[in-house]
Write a structure and sequence with these properties.
single chain; 183 residues; mainly alpha; Glucose Oxidase, domain 1; 3 domains; two-stranded antiparallel sheet; two-stranded parallel sheet; 6 helices; 4 strands; extended
Amino acid sequence: MKNKLVTLLAAAIGLTAIGLASPSINARQTVQTEVLDIIKQDVSSSTLSYDIVESLTTEVGARMVGTPGADAATDWAMAKMKALGFDKVWVEESQAQLWQRGDLTASITAPYPHKVVAIALGGSVGTNGQAINAEVAYFDDLTALQAAPEGSLKGKIAYVGYRMERHIDGHGYGKAVGARVAG
């Protein structure tokens, strides 16, 4: 662990020194790329990041903002960072609002009625117990949704059927979340 921290510290100092001493942007970028390659190699040969995630998810579990689980996660994080050797660890105040998922049911009513599995995502607006009945307009991805003619979705539910690509580093989430954020 200390070797990892020493490597990161050395890299940070190296990047700072390079930035102050190098007269050429191209030379600086080349050296920075080399330092970043060293960091990537070091990180890829360690399971520390996954060990931390596993510890959080198994020892703390669910941790939605504003719940006891979030408080437990804060305590866990403080202890974990101190155990990893960080010398300046503190908790910042948070202005995050508690959002609680309510009950949700969903079904297709035509041409053959059947229930479907659905989940409300954080910050979703409720319907005060009122059902929503509307035609569903299907889109393969966010680009297709954004290409829909103005006004063509009035009174409809827009469904973006893009499936998130799984990657060990989670980079598939960024593309998939676009429909949620900008859809």
